[in-house]
Each structure stands twice: as C-alpha cells, then as structure tokens.
Amino acid sequence: MGATMEMITEMALTPPPEQGALLMAVPFFHVTGCLSMLLKTFSDGVQVVMMRRWNVDEAIRLMVEHKINIVGGVPAIMMAIMQSPKLPKDHVLTGVSYGGAPPPGRMPADIKKRWPEIGMGKLFCYVSADDQSPLGV
User: Fold this and answer.
1) Euclidean distance between CA atoms 122 and 101, whole angstroms
2) How many CA atoms lie within 13 A of 131 on its CB side?
3) Distance of alpha carbon 95 from the chain centroid
C-alpha cells in the first residue's frame, strides 16, 4: 500500500512532459503524410497542426502560434522554413524529417547548425519516394 501511495503522490506532483507539436504540411493520402508522420504522432502522443495548402508565411505563423517543434515533408518545405526571415531566431525544432525528392547536399548540416538541439535519431532523410525506410542522420 505504501508504494502505491508514493506513486500516486509522485504522479500528482510531477508535471507532465511538454507535448510535442508537428506541422502537417503534406496530405494524408501520401505515404509520407500517413505513415512517416501521422502514425508516428499517434505513438508519441504529439499534437498535429494541419495545413490545407502549403504557404511558407502561414507555416511560420502556425509554427509560432502552436509552438511547433517537429516539421516534415519534402526538402523544399524545410528549405523554405529555414530561409524565411519571419521565423524567429529562437524558435526551437526537436525533430525534422524530409524525403520524396533529393535534398541539397548541405541541408542536414544547415539544419543541425540552426537547431543543434535536434539529437541523433531526430533528423530523418527518406532516401527516395519509393523507399519508405528512414535513414537517421
């Protein structure tokens, strides 16, 4: 009985971990949107913020408003986000995935330079549109 009361007390006094938030800028019918992003959010308990159409200014607005810390899609989406002067310099990303098209060769290094808090296994490049096995960078 003592261990149970200690567990309940610890749960009541310990704040829950901060919930992650993913910007969903690709359609659900695409394998990237459905498998590599949507299903992962279910398993990790991540909030999903969806976009009807891609627009970098709207993406940045949503990222700031909803504290988005995970972004995925084609490399052009990530490049547009990184190059936008509207994204606050202190905005934190903890996870990035991209694929479906070849990324610029320097893209992983640029992402790690801008967001060093993205740890190993949190930066994914999908090798091709046909190969759905993620390669952790």
Assistant:
1) 19
2) 9
3) 4
Whether the CB-CB separation of 92 and 116 falls below 8 Å is answered with no
| pLDDT digits 0-9 by tens, 70-120 | 888 888 999 999 999 999 999 999 888 887 788 888 988 899 899 888 865
Architecture, CATH, for domain 19-136:
3-Layer(aba) Sandwich (3.40)
What residue spans define the domains of the chain? Answer: 19-136
Strand partners, 100: none
Pairing of strands 123-126, 134-136: antiparallel
> Any residues with CB less than 8 A from the CB of 18 and at least 6 apart, and which?
none
